[in-house]
Write a structure and sequence with these properties.
The complex is a heterodimer of chains A (about 325) and B (about 90). With about 325 residues, chain A is of the alpha+beta class. In chain A, the strands form three sheets. Chain A has a seven-stranded mixed sheet with strand order 3-7-8-12-11-10-9. In chain A, strand 10 and strand 11 form a beta hairpin. Chain A is globular. By secondary structure, chain B is an all-alpha fold. Chain B is built from three helices and no strands. Chain B is globular, with a radius of gyration of 12 Å. The N and C termini of chain B lie close together (about 10 Å). Classes of the chains: A alpha+beta (about 325), B mainly alpha (about 90). At the A-B interface, helix 7 of A face helix 2 of B.
């Protein structure tokens, strides 16, 4: 589409051999604390301190100081979630919330089922909220539907949930991103994605991370998903800024996505010429960048290069 | 079904599902549908509508952007699957 984004495929030597080796090192150092569930971790004070420094650093990369900033809770409206069509593309990653809305009688039935070792969740009903499928998904339903000629730029930060239990610490089920989202004309959306891909890559390289840009596709589900993934690659809709954290595979620590009209259409967002608005976003993966910093510069922040600590103010 | 009927049906499917920026009747059989505004997600909807219409399943190697790039490309893919061949038989 642009033909000017420098995609590299040559790998760098990685500091860790495997995700399992990285996980063991992070747990031994106390930076992450494992829980009963694969892919769900507690973060130590040192880890969280770096993550918050990365979040501030990401936010500081803004060029337009007038863009509003929003921090989202980890849940979003079910209605907005359904409009994103996420169920069609990623049913295997969804986290839907159930709640109890009965009275005393229904409560007793629930507890009886629990004591009998039965499925107590059948006594719950779907809530009006779901776990956020992606950060920007929470945004679109709250934007004015008449998009101004200059486009709408918003910065968003929050948690996303993906149900994919894994022992790879880079594949957490619950993680945060800091995103720069633009809604506007197709040309504005592509220009935003491309400009941010370069700015994002350079800002990560400035942290001493040997990053590179790769064309990428989302893990769309099933047979239809394979066509969507192939289309996404062919149309150059998605790029990732990747880092070699382990020898197993490159780790995407940020991504730049052009959504075409995928969100503008269901959320009724229109441009002044009457067209359906297109959108794009650049997202800094906060946990993954933090993991990348520890993997690259060492497990103790005190031993990191001075310039990295100074750039991050940590 | 003749190949001209197949082409007409493809155009009906495109009018309903491709979300083109222009009227499909204004496009020639070889015009690029993506250039005319068909998105990646819309092309998948077109693919599924073709499968429903002719009770076929596109094989894995055909599930790519170029298969659905024009009316002619879709007709050629369908012909490979035996749709519209009666006319030449």
């Amino acid at each position: 589409m642009t033909g000017t984004i420098e995609v590299q495929t040559e790998r760098h030597p990685a500091p860790y051999g495997s995700p399992e080796e990285l996980r063991a090192a992070l747990l031994d150092a106390g930076l992450l604390v494992a829980t009963r569930t694969d892919g769900v971790y507690h973060r130590s004070g040192e880890f969280e301190g770096v993550l918050q420094a990365v979040e501030r650093y990401a936010a500081d990369q803004r060029e337009d100081a007038t863009a509003p900033r929003r921090w989202f809770p980890p849940v979003m409206a079910r209605e907005d979630f359904l409009r994103t069509d996420y169920l069609r593309s990623f049913p295997d990653l969804v986290g839907s919330l159930d709640v109890f809305s009965g009275g005393d009688k229904e409560h007793r039935a629930l507890l009886a089922e629990l004591e009998d070792g039965g499925d107590w969740t059948t006594h719950l009903t779907p809530a009006e909220v779901v776990l956020s499928s992606s950060i920007c998904h929470s945004l679109y339903g709250t934007l004015p539907t008449d998009v101004p000629a200059a486009g709408l730029l918003t910065e968003c930060c929050g948690f996303a949930f993906r149900h994919e239990p894994s022992l790879d610490p880079a594949r957490m089920q619950s993680f945060r991103m800091y995103e720069f989202v633009l809604v506007g004309t197709p040309d504005q959306a592509v220009a935003h994605r491309d400009a941010w891909l370069r700015r994002g890559r350079d800002s990560l390289a400035a942290l001493g991370l040997p990053v590179r840009v790769e064309a990428a596709n989302d893990p769309f589900f099933g047979r239809v998903g394979r066509m969507l993934a192939a289309n996404q690659l062919t149309a150059e809709l998605k790029y990732e800024v990747v880092l070699d954290v382990t020898d197993a595979r490159p780790t995407a620590i940020s991504s730049a996505n052009y959504h075409e009209d995928h969100f503008g259409l269901p959320f009724g967002l229109t441009t002044p010429d009457g067209g359906v608005a297109h959108s794009s976003c650049f997202g800094y993966g906060l946990e993954r960048i933090t993991l990348g910093l520890f993997a690259t510069h060492g497990l103790a922040v005190s031993a990191w290069p001075d310039e990295v600590r100074s750039t991050l103010s940590c | 079904m003749s190949s001209s009927t197949v082409t007409a049906t493809i155009r009906t499917i495109l009018a309903e599902h491709a979300r083109l920026g222009t009227d499909v009747s204004a496009l020639s059989d070889t015009d690029d549908l993506y250039a005319a505004g068909m998105t990646s997600h819309a092309s998948v909807t077109v693919m599924l509508a073709c499968e429903d219409e002719w009770d076929i399943e596109f094989p894995q190697q055909m599930l790519k952007k170029s298969t659905f790039a024009s009316v002619a490309a879709i007709a050629a893919a369908l012909a490979e699957l035996g749709v519209g061949e009666q006319a030449s038989a």
